[in-house]
Amino acid sequence: MPATIGDNSKDLTPAEQKALYMHHFGAILKQTEICKAENAERLKLRKQAKADGIVLADIDFGLRCAQIEDPSVIVNEQKRRAEIGGYFALPIGAQSEFDFDREPAVDRAWREGERAGYEAVNAYTNPYDENSAQGRAWAKGWKEAQAEMAANLQSAMEKKQADRVQKAADLAAADDGENDPEDDHEADPAEAAE
Fold it and tell me: Where are the beta strands (DSSP E) in the chain?
């Protein structure tokens, strides 16, 4: 006999409900553990950036810029902040007077390509026709950013490594030997009795 409206035969039994719950619980728990591990790695990367002198708020702002769908939101926010800074006589300049909407298309394409190059986006993602002025500008911006990024990153990494080596050498030179592990144990009682 088919079930009718109000028929509870389609309700889950307590065992079925438990099995369904445990299925979802297990999947969510597994994903939560993955997220914890990924978040720990993210925090480690943020600490390294901070140790290298990067302001984390700038990283957060960059991430927001990279992911925003409507760039005018950030442009308008920056205009408001520049205006508010003026209320407090901060030396921000005339940034609030810039006309952000009048940038030539070729210049904008170059900047977009530069951004893509710095983000290590594949060169084949050029959104413009490669034979157009904008397409060539995008490609040029991408190529220049890639070259500059490689050179500057190499230089920065060498400097940071030299700093780490110098700090380690400074610590070693400042060590007076008082904290050496072999000095931490007391004299052998047999030797003391002699």
Answer: none
